[in-house]
Design goal:
By secondary structure, the chain is mainly alpha-helical. It has a single domain (3-292), classed as Farnesyl Diphosphate Synthase. 72% of the residues lie in helices and 1% in strands. A hairpin with a 2-residue loop joins strand 1 and strand 2. The protein is globular. The chain starts with a helix and ends with a helix.
Length: 296
């Protein structure tokens, strides 16, 4: 990534992290524990890819990214809620996330469950507040809520998670694996891109944003699957080899490491081709290529 693009990314990350911190700053009496659990998981680190995508698609479509930081954070609230729940013993049963003890290891299962629920509802509160403060129109708020709710539900992230659970201890074919990841990982990435376009009011670019996100989401998951085999705890901040331990079907088990890498390369090239439809796409072009070669 060029120096200018890295600077742009750093500015985005600072604004996003400051906003996320502010959203969980209040620690209400007798509810301090859950507020601390929310903040603990939200501020544990992470690439902040989804809010960056929302802000950048808004900017590329003529909107002002600096004015929608809170809205962009709504999707990071959802993402963090999903990670808290994924780590629970009844799901993936992971003790570490981003190099720190998982939320349920730090605060207990009940508090972690409720912290995830609270982050989920806070995301929609943020969108509603933006409309009430006239930062966005009521129509835009309804569209954002619709896109985000669908991305989270049975035909989105939660649907992907239930397919994932059902796929444990059995081999699934590549079509079923694509469907699983389209929902579990891809739906929220697509929502981020589409929501950015909606905020900018450039509705005719929604199909292109969705197509880019579909390619990026699958490439992103394939690289995750490869890193689960080739990475280290120090790089990823979570246990390595958990997919194999749980007998999960992944792109690596389906295609092998070399085949999975070739598919990630192909999907990334497709994402870059779609991205050329947007003006001033240099930053996202570089970020997309960097995600293919990431080590964490």
């Amino acid at each position: 990534m060029t120096e200018n693009s890295q600077l742009t990314l750093n500015i985005y990350l600072k604004h996003i992290n400051d906003s996320l911190k502010a959203l969980t700053a209040e620690k209400p009496h007798l509810r301090e524990n859950i507020a601390e659990a929310m903040e603990y998981s939200l501020m544990a680190g992470g690439k902040r890819l989804r809010p960056v995508l929302m802000m950048e698609f808004c900017r590329m479509c003529g909107g002002n990214a600096a004015e929608i930081v809170d809205l962009a954070c709504s999707i990071e609230l959802i993402h963090t809620f999903s990670l808290i729940h994924d780590d629970l013993p009844c799901m993936d049963d992971d003790d570490y996330r981003r190099g720190k003890p998982s939320c349920h290891k730090q605060f207990g299962e009940a508090t972690a469950l409720l912290a995830g629920d609270a982050l989920n509802t806070l995301a929609f509160e943020v969108i509603a507040e933006a409309a009430m403060q006239e930062k966005i129109s009521s129509q835009a708020a309804v569209m954002l809520v619709s896109v985000l709710a669908k991305a989270v539900g049975v035909n989105g992230m939660i649907g992907g998670q239930i397919i994932d659970l059902a796929a444990e201890n059995r081999q699934i074919n590549i079509d079923e694996l694509d469907l699983l990841q389209q929902y579990k990982t891809g739906a929220l990435i697509e929502a981020a891109c589409v929501m950015g376009v909606i905020i900018a009011g450039k509705y005719d670019m929604i199909p292109a944003a969705a197509e880019y996100a579909d390619c990026l989401g699958r490439a992103f998951q394939i690289v995750d699957d490869i890193l689960d085999v080739t990475g280290s705890f120090e790089e990823l901040g979570k246990p390595i080899g958990s997919d194999a331990e749980q007998n999960k079907s992944t792109y690596v088990t389906a295609l092998g490491i070399e085949g999975a890498q070739k598919e990630a390369d192909r999907l990334t090239e497709s994402a870059l081709t779609v991205l050329r439809q947007f003006e001033d796409h240099d930053f996202l072009f570089e970020l997309t290529k960097d995600l293919l070669h990431r080590r964490s």
